[in-house]
Design a protein that fits this description.
By secondary structure, the chain is α+β, with helices and mostly antiparallel strands. About 45% of the residues lie in helices and about 10% in strands. It has one domain. It binds zinc ion (ZN).
Length: about 70
């Protein structure tokens, strides 16, 4: 079986450079109005561009959590 290495974001056909747990990526990209292609894989691949967005979203999320829980 050929491993899929292209970006998992819907509508994107760039080469994936990083892979992350699918659930995490789905969650992070939701706030950027992006969704993943349907797949049974547990991991999602991201191209450089979408990785940047993912990073930005997770950072934002962390900050929000910090605020909320006051740590
Ligand atoms: Zn992409």
């Amino acid at each position: 079986m050929v491993k899929e290495k292209t970006c998992s974001v819907e509508g994107c056909s760039e080469l994936g450079v990083r892979s992350f747990a699918r659930a995490k990526v789905t969650e992070a990209l939701q706030s950027a109005s992006l969704s993943l292609k349907s797949s049974r894989a547990r991991r999602a691949h991201l191209c450089a561009e979408h990785y940047k967005i993912y990073k930005k979203q997770t950072r934002k999320e962390k900050r929000v959590n910090k605020w909320r829980y006051g740590t």
